[in-house]
Amino acid sequence: MNVLPGWLRRHVAALRALLVFTAVLGVLYPLAVTAVAQVPGLKDRADGSYVSSGGRQVGSDLVGQSFTGEDGNPLRQYFQSRPSAAGDGYDPTATSASNLGPEDIVDEGGEQSLLSMVCTRSKQVGQLEGVDGSRPYCAESGAGAVLSVLGPRDASGAVVRPTRVISVNEPCPAVPFLAEYRGVQVECAAPGQDPRAGKIVPVRGSAPADPAVPADAVTASGSGLDPHISVAYADLQAGRVAEARGVPAGTVRKLVEDATTGRALGFMGQPVVNVLQLNIALDKAAPYRG
Amino acid sequence: MGATAAGILFIGSLILVLAAVHVPLGDHMYRTFTSTRHWRAERLIYRIVGVDPDAEQVWSVYARSVLAFSAVSVLALYGLQRLQSHLMLSLGFGGVEPDIAWNTAISFVTNTNWQAYSGESAMGHLAQMAGLAVQNFVSAAVGIAVAMAFVRGLARRRTGELGNFWVDLTRAVTRVLLPIAAVAAIALVAGGAIQNFADPHTVGTLTGGEQTITGGPVASQEAIKELGTNGGGFYNANSAHPFENPTSWTNWIEILLILLIPFSLPRTFGRMVGDRRQGGAIVAVMAALALISVVALNAAQLAHHGTVPESVTAASEGTEARFGISNSATFAAATTLTSTGAVDSFHDSYTSLGGAVTMLNMMVGEVAPGGVGSGLYGMLILAIITVFAAGLMVGRTPEYLGKRIGAREIKLASMYFLVTPMIVLVGTGIAMAFETPRESMLNSGPHGLSEVLYAFTSAANNNGSAFGGLTAATTFYDVALGLAMAFGRFLPIVLALALAGSLARQTPVPVSAGTLPTHRPQFVGMVAGVTLILVALTFFPALALGPLAEGIH
User: Fold this and answer.
1) How far, in Å, CA of B261 to CA of B221, rounded?
2) Which residues belong to the signal peptide in this entry (chain A) (predicted)?
């Protein structure tokens, strides 16, 4: 060895060190952890917390699912999960968040902005559950209530005297959510217009500060696989599910309680309801005869 | 209990446990890196590697050993990814694309763990466990080793020797990282994190659809991913994925693992320089800055300013229901304060000011408490810059722990500080100047700039988290961010070791009436002040164009 020059000896040592560490940390360590994870009580979890319904494996306790029909519409007899940005929804081979920002409010290139997604979902959930789906900054049409205000600007960029006002998220021939803005008639968005030519102004509207549709029902999770919904969203859905299954609301509410996990040790995380668990319990206790 | 009270208890319990644990763990690391006895298993490793564990290295040899080990690691990890289709447990995935493989190799060797790849659709089990997870351990061990060499430079006198890299590397693995990671991995399995070697498994869902459930040795990798402040997820969704982070209490454990070693190393430093109060001062600076950041990030997220959060009535986009907004914000603060970059919620969808805090955390240079090892030597260099600034004010040659901070020392320290801002600002500038890199932005306007600024900040500071909307899997970003990560890791390491070598040679000057005490609250305040002022002066213009422009209407 000593005949080799110093720099080469050093790299040979580095290579040997890497090989040793790969054997120990890259092979033995994960195998040892896997071996320990084979003890009863841990094994089911290490394997992926699979759950069954009616003798058939239907998924994992920890991975959310869509409860929609073939047409993509929610099935009334099932509790609905949160919106998902993983693939076409709840795809574990393409986990993802939307990554859309807090000021993503203008629909562009045929893509809905985050604001319009939130507004559309809120409207749809409101219709499904029979409550008011309106939210701040949302138009009645389900689009984000955002105007592009054109006209001469002052030094700070404010439009002094609007000449044209366009509702950017409502393509023609829609009727804009607002008839008039600062004395100018609001137009629908004609194709090919650049919405950013004007000043972008979101309009709060008259929606209640505390909307009936909860926050988690209109936003996608980080993983796109969130198995849970908030207790508020579960409560909102309980009446509709009970009606669809023809059972008393009390029965369904009891099952919701059973599927609810409180905060760990009383202070970690949020109380949540596991949607798959709940729907499996429903199928068992109150089978759907639709 | 209300959500806010629960969020405060969550933070408080983490602080309590860290306060209790950092002393014994710091002492354990002190014994680990000062002991002259080798374990039998370690002797075996030294024999295989072919080094004499009792031989010491001067700074330049230590640095060359770090670089040699890292260079070999990059090549091996690149090769493993490219060739995975010919090896076992590939799950049928082909070789990883060359530019992504290069970026990922650099990313994991530099302890950054920027994810240009998507775990579940590109990496087989073997590449994950024998490639990525191994670097999770050893890149963290390299950080600890360099920190120990740096502290020896402060502690030793009239010698050129800083220790033996191979011994420090090995002991960091065998006596610190591996034991803690093994225990943590089992705890994560108990919470529901998976640990198997299964292929993707398709089941029929309750409504008659299909869903493919993935497998993998996740828990073992998740534990070291957090403990080593690495951050590269087994899955694209990282620690938001229920198989990586299944419950609210595993979330708590993962945050603890992230903060554990960085907050314990100052204690080790204090013991090694023979004055625990010095370690106390350093940990106080780190804790003060970290607490400000955690509170600010929680406040910004809970206040949920911004059009979409106000419409939703909460900043819940990109967060998991089981964690909630406050615990997600606490995780985000921990991960960006420590150069970890794991995420349990997606920062791109954070409120403008919340997103600005995550960026600011990284811009502080990953010192509060910073990555394993790198946080300690980064903070010690800021302490040296502070005594220099204080010395300028009173016209006296500054000294730190009895070592004079002369021209050579302050040049090295200044260069150390300037490396990352250079990479971040020049890199962002170049990206914004060209058409193709700009097309990668998902969001438009100031938020688009934030995505690019975040990417270079994250890469140069070896963090690895992202404003994920940026399409970073392009040749430009793979190459540019790969270079940013490499320079952002190894230039500071070489400069820190050179500085340590120069300090070790000195004979300490005795404490006199004119010596600035470096263990009192006054000094803690000065270091925190110098850190914040330097960072604010460097990055304020860039932040003003990005998150501040977006957040202030």
Assistant:
1) 17
2) none
CA-based nearest residue in chain B for residue A231: B321
Whether residue A58 is found in the same domain as residue A197: no
pLDDT in tens, chain B (553 residues): 789 999 999 999 999 999 999 999 999 999 999 999 999 999 999 999 999 999 999 999 999 999 999 999 999 999 999 999 999 899 989 999 999 999 999 999 999 999 888 888 899 999 999 999 999 999 999 999 999 999 999 999 999 999 999 999 999 999 999 999 999 999 999 999 999 999 999 999 999 999 999 999 999 999 999 999 999 989 999 999 999 999 999 999 999 999 999 999 999 999 999 999 999 999 999 999 999 999 999 999 999 999 999 999 999 999 999 999 999 999 999 999 999 999 999 999 999 999 999 999 999 988 999 999 999 999 999 999 999 999 988 888 899 999 999 999 999 999 999 999 999 999 999 999 999 999 998 888 899 999 999 999 999 999 999 888 899 889 999 999 999 999 999 999 999 999 999 999 999 998 888 888 999 999 999 999 999 999 888 999 999 999 999 887 6
What gap in Å lies between CA B425 and CA B449, rounded to an integer? 12
Hey, are the CB atoms on B120 and A29 less than 8 Å from each other? no
Indicate whether A12 belongs to any domain.
no
Q: With beta carbons less than 8 A apart as the criterion, state whether B371 and B112 touch.
A: no
Residues 6+ apart with CB under 8 A from B216: B125, B128, B194, B196, B197, B198, B234, B243
Characterise A254 by phi-psi region: left (phi > 0), alpha (psi -120 to 50), beta (else). alpha
Chain A CA closest to residue B353: A102
| Pair A230, A177 in one domain | no
Is the residue at A125 inside a domain?
no
**Rounded alpha-carbon distances, angstroms, from residue B174 to A25, B42, B135, B180, B501:** 10, 8, 14, 10, 26
| Contact call for A270 and B322, based on CB within 8 A | yes
B437 phi and psi, to 5 degrees?
-60, -30
Whether A221 sits inside 8 A of B3 (CB atoms) is no
Chain B positions touching A229 (Cβ under 8 A) are 321
Please check whether residue A26 lies inside any domain of the structure: no
Instruction: State the residue range of the domain holding A180.
Output: 146-202
Q: How far apart are CA B495 and CA B237, in angstroms?
A: 35
Specify whether A234 is located in the same domain as A186: no
A68 strand-pairing partners: A74
In the block, tokens 């994991």 appear at: B108
**Does A166 fall in a domain?**
yes
Give every CB contact of residue B400 below 8 A, 6+ residues apart in sequence: B154, B383, B384, B387, B518
Contact A20 B185 (CB under 8 A): no
Instruction: Quote the CA–CA distance of B353 and A99 in Å, as a whole number.
Output: 16
Which secondary structure element, helix H or strand E, spans residue A165, and what is its range?
A: strand A164-171
**C-beta atoms of B313 and A210 within 8 A:** yes
Could you give the 3-state DSSP secondary structure of residue A185? strand
User: Within this chain, do residues A186 and A225 fall inside the same structural domain, yes or no?
Assistant: no
**B444 contacts in chain A (CB < 8 Å):** 106, 108, 196
CB contact under 8 A, B346 and A222: yes
Q: Which residues of B touch A230 (CB under 8 A)?
A: 321
Q: Can you read off the two tokens belonging to residue B221? A: 């990798």
Q: Give the gap in angstroms from C-alpha B5 to the nearest C-alpha of chain A.
A: 8
Contact A228 B221 (CB under 8 A): no
- Cβ contact B241–A223 (<8 Å): yes
Task: Tell me which residues of chain B, numbers 425 to 454, contact chain A at a CB-CB cutoff of 8 Å.
Answer: 442-447, 450
Of residues B71, B249, B310, nearest to A265 (C-beta): B249
Whether B553 has its CB under 8 Å from any CB of chain A: the answer is no
**Cα-based distances in Å from A161 to A146, A184, A205, B59, B125:** 18, 9, 22, 68, 62
